Amino acid sequence: MPALGYKKALNLYFSRTKNLLKIFIHNPKGIIGLFVIIIFALMAIFAPLLTPYDPVKDKYVSGSYSAPVWLKYIPSFLGGRPGAAENFAITENSDFTNSLEAWNYTTAPHISVNHSSFGIDETNPGSAKITFTRNETEDTYGNVTVTLNKEFYYPFAEKPRKFTVYCSLFANGTLYNETISKLVRERYYDNATGKWKIRTYYLNTTKIGLDVNITIFIYIQRVSDGKIFPVWPYQPQLADYLYVDASPADKFPKPGTIYNASKRWIKTDTFTPDSDIIRYPGIEDVTPIIFNQTLIPGYYRLGINITFQDFKTPLKEVEASLYVDRFYIKFEGTVWGLMGTDHYGSDLWSQLVYGSRISLYVGLLSSILSVLIGLIVGLAAGYMGRYVDEVLMRFSDMLLVLPGLPLLIVLIAVLGATAENLIIIIGLLGWMGFARLVRSQVLSLKERPFVEAARAVGAGRFHIISTHIMPNVMSLVYVSLATSVPSAIVSEAALSFLGFYDPNRMSWGRMLYEVQANGAVQYWWWVIPPGLCIAALAIAFIMFGFALDEIFNPKLRMRR
Question: How far apart are CA 128 and CA 112, in angstroms?
Fold first, then answer.
């Protein structure tokens, strides 16, 4: 018999659910709201599949403030940018894996340019080896220069946002060993006399370096007029960057012998035109000078001048080699992806996609917490009455009169701006209205005949609340869950917009904060999408909640 009772109750439950779904299907507001919620939920779940970039950590995927790439396909009179520059790199044979193919070089006396199997990448080695040699019967030659360059075509009508030149260098050769005597004055305490004294002596130090200094000069040349623009204009001596590992001390590297190769490669990957290192005289950024608007698109050369300075050791057999590897240039464009980039060159589409996670995470969990607290307080106050009701309602009134946003700001500033803290705070400050709604419903329900009958047969308080009262207020729970999510979403966005955001997570409010913090309101592709998403998701939950309210309230459904 009990089994038949459970089966009957289950059938009744499925029948009611089926009827509610039929009513919901014919409610346009509910369908539209649920559809929008599902879209954002799928966006949050499949965020790693929708974008390969981390919204917080991955920076400089393209030039800063890049526009969406689809603007290239819109006519300029409609606001499009048909000639905008995309990301572009010249990497053909940049690692010199098998030969010097695609590279041009000049020759000079005593200099040879060859391919070497030695390279910075041990699994796929290769480099361009430039070697200077002089035999022991010859005097010094002074400065001897050779050039290694590659010609490339820049295809876009707009100049790039920024470019970076990468180059890895390794120097090796015969060494000189020079003893330097330095006069040292030292103050010491004489124990015999009990006085401070000064003594002088010569300290001999040994200086080890390449017999032939090597300087480099990396440049970009505009083929149309032959003008050369320095990318690393200071021509540093590589000897200033390298050290020689000679062990034991009386054995020095011979020509062609590599010592501590992994430590002595110099990776010159800081040649960006707007860094503190790179400056064209009197100009902050060399990009508009090199890529002149009247000359692009066009042909350019990426090159390196290598100068061997042979002054130190005459009448000695000397050799100096410079290995060049991973020599290439990357351009950061002015358009990128579906939504462009921010001031750090981070992908805005990634930020929008991952921002949906925070909005749903904070909105749903804080709503569940506030509704749960409100349900417990409302049931207790409505059914228990008297002193319990008075204390709980006066406490609720006290929280209701507190200003919400200022209190949120203070608590977040004290506890820390994490999503979890925000969920707890919003949940603890958002239950009062629902508690009053549940209390009023319980005050009506506890006077109903079926509750009086339960009391008459000796049912306890917990049994009456859980069996007879709570099922009759669950419709309020469902509606309140849906309608309280928007306030949580907007609260999170407001706090993030004011700067109180989790630094390890991206949210739509944080996107808007970055816009106003960087004065980027003119970049509509950065401003409009997060604002629209906040509004769309909030309205979707409101429409869904109204639909549930109509379903669970037949009189309201008939009136509407």
Answer: 10
**Other residues' Cβ atoms within 10 Å of the Cβ of residue 539:** 15
Burial of 41 per CB tally in 10 Å (0-12, 13-18, 19+): middle
Instruction: Give yes or no for a contact between 513 and 497, defined as CB atoms under 8 angstroms apart.
Output: yes
Helices of type H across 429-523: 432-445, 449-456, 461-464, 470-497, 508-517
Q: How far is CA 153 from the centre of its chain?
A: 31
**φ, ψ for residue 22, nearest 5 deg:** -60, -40
Work out the burial of residue 427: count CB atoms within 10 Å of its CB; fewer than 13 is exposed, 13-18 middle, 19 or more buried: buried
Q: What distance in Å separates the CA atoms of residue 195 and residue 425, rounded to the nearest whole number?
A: 71
Is the Cα torsion angle 202, 203, 204, 205 positive or negative in sign? Answer: negative
Residue type, 50: L
Question: Which domains does the chain show, CATH number per domain?
Answer: 88-332 (2.60.120.260), 347-559 (1.10.3720.10)
In this prediction, residues 489-510 reach a mean pLDDT of: 90
pTM of the model: 0.78
3-state secondary structure of 264: helix
pLDDT for 270: 40
Q: What percent of the chain has pLDDT over 90?
A: 31
pLDDT at 6: 61
**pLDDT for 179:** 65
